[in-house]
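Thread title: Can someone regenerate the structure for this chain?

I was given the following input by a collaborator and told the matching structure tokens would be attached. They weren't. Posting the sequence so someone can regenerate them.
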Amino acid sequence: MGLILGLIIGGLAGWIAGKLMKGQGFGLLGNILLGLVGGFLGGIVFRLLGLAATGVIGSLIMSVIGAVLLIVIVRKIKS
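Best answer:
Regenerated them for you:
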């Protein structure tokens, strides 16, 4: 059940980050991948700031923040 919930949160986080940053999503697999990597990045950033995300909503918020940061980093590298 944890894997399925992680994929759902990753997909939602990637989709939300895509909407926030460029106005559209990245496709189903792209959204899931973006959200999962964003969750990892968000976890690192939250730990560095001394914050904790608990529950499904906390995980989703952390993943969205991480995914947005990931999009910003990729855009800076590409330009």
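Residues 55-78 form the longest helix (24 residues).
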